[in-house]
């Protein structure tokens, strides 16, 4: 984690970026791009949740509240004030970050992780119930529609870029840019003093504190960064899907899906949440017909992956190459 | 702040720590001057580790005060005490499992460097000093008990403390490594490092410390040179009375 990347890893990252960039030139299949856009939105969410839970060790189960606050915040500002989605997605992130600060201050002083889990989950329920009852503003479960899409613009040489349901390509690139930004921020932080402090804090709170790490400040910092990123992901989602319901963006189902993604991909790794988001988004599409049984399937996936892949999909390769013991100690 | 020569580095004043009905430390007072090595002795459960927790800030005393470097730190948080110059090792070691040995120590060297590579270089020095150079790049969870103890020491030293609290650093360390550790602590002493050591190994105490406090049931029972303490009738009685101990 803290060593310079090997050329092999650089190549892998670069290759993945190039493939992602070229993909819309190979196919403009609306459905495929839609699934990938969702995977990227969930990829941001999953990475940001993993930042807090996998790396910093704070077991929060209420991050869907930040997704919802970013989504509704950005959508409502767009609808009521007529501001451009290009601006409001950042405001949505800011609203989520402020909420993260507000809820983080009392919560993060709690040392008992089960309590942190319950309180954050409770907070998210409050957000969901509030969103569904403020019907004058949010229209509740009927759904908030009329959310403005991103303004189009002209790229010299390429022509006009229009954000419309018919053409997913502009959304695809925007989602990819946001994904790169989010993962870039998290990676940069993880490879700095912050990352060192977070893992120290996760592995031994008392020892970390005795070595000079200010636990409260450190926890609040990751919490705020993470809720900002989740808020921006939610805001993008709002202007992409253009209809929001509290059940869809503030329901605990969403959080469970994200947890499943991170566990399947690899908790406490940088690439795991991305791999998990891709795999599970595709799987969820296949299972769309199951509808009410979806939660059952997520549950089964979580249980199976914890049983058979305790370190996630991304450690599979290492497992094959080395004895299991070495693989276990090398997860990064 | 200029410090007078005779101001003690650490001044513990009538500190009491009660956990519900259990009084782990009872009205304890003592001082440590700069450059001194104080040994805390006593049977299991005497309150030695609790005393360290109070000095390092992991516990806040039920009553009493603690002064460090002329400042009242009674309510100061552990991280701030570290920055003020107090470092401690944990008797029950707390390695950061998913970090390598060097990275464990880097956590302590963070405040002194801006770049990760400088931190790493600095940390390596401490890893070497405690004799873990060969294990520098393995994950800390792969260490043996003795190696964990040494990692504790490297991390604490790397904060460059004014006062270093060592809680049974030789415990669990294999016998042939003890002389090396002893030499290390001696060289720290020769550089003027102030130390409080908790030790059961009488040989180690005799070689290192100037003064010893013998605690029993949370209170100071005897104080003097290690030799005086070990020969004190009350101490002898205690161990004979309990069927022999390890002090
Ligand atoms: N956090 C705590 N809560 C309740 N009781 C505690 C706590 N910490 C210590 N004690 C109790 O305080 C007493 C003193 O414990 P302490 O760990 O300070 O002893 P010690 O002198 O370090 O012993 P040892 O030689 O076994 O390490 C013991 O009776 C212990 O059970
Ligand atoms: Mg002890």
UniProtKB/TrEMBL annotation, chain A:
The chain crosses the membrane at residues 7-25, 31-52, 64-83, 89-108, 171-190, 222-242, 254-283, 295-314. The keyword Cell membrane applies. It holds the Pfam family BPD_transp_2. InterPro entries: ABC_transp_permease (IPR001851), LivM-like (IPR043428). It is found in: Cell membrane. One of its GO terms (molecular function) is branched-chain amino acid transmembrane transporter activity. It comes from the Bacteria. GO terms for cellular component: plasma membrane. Its main location: membrane. Keywords: Cell membrane, Membrane, Transmembrane, Transmembrane helix. It is a multi-pass membrane protein. PANTHER family: HIGH-AFFINITY BRANCHED-CHAIN AMINO ACID TRANSPORT PROTEIN BRAE, HIGH-AFFINITY BRANCHED-CHAIN AMINO ACID TRANSPORT SYSTEM PERMEASE. This is Branched-chain amino acid ABC transporter permease. It comes from Pelagivirga sediminicola.
Automatic annotation (TrEMBL), chain B:
InterPro entries: AAA+_ATPase (IPR003593), ABC_AA/LPS_Transport (IPR051120), ABC_transporter-like_ATP-bd (IPR003439), P-loop_NTPase (IPR027417). The keyword Transport applies. The keyword Nucleotide-binding applies. Keywords: ATP-binding, Nucleotide-binding, Transport. Residues 10-242 form the ABC transporter domain. Coiled coil: none annotated. GO terms for cellular component: plasma membrane. GO terms for biological process: D-alanine transmembrane transport; L-alanine transport; L-isoleucine import across plasma membrane; L-valine import across plasma membrane. It holds the Pfam family ABC_tran. GO terms for molecular function: ATP binding; ATP hydrolysis activity; L-isoleucine transmembrane transporter activity; L-phenylalanine transmembrane transporter activity; L-valine transmembrane transporter activity. PANTHER family: AMINO ACID ABC TRANSPORTER ATP-BINDING PROTEIN, CONSERVED COMPONENT OF ABC TRANSPORTER FOR NATURAL AMINO ACIDS-RELATED. This is ABC transporter ATP-binding protein. It comes from Pelagivirga sediminicola.
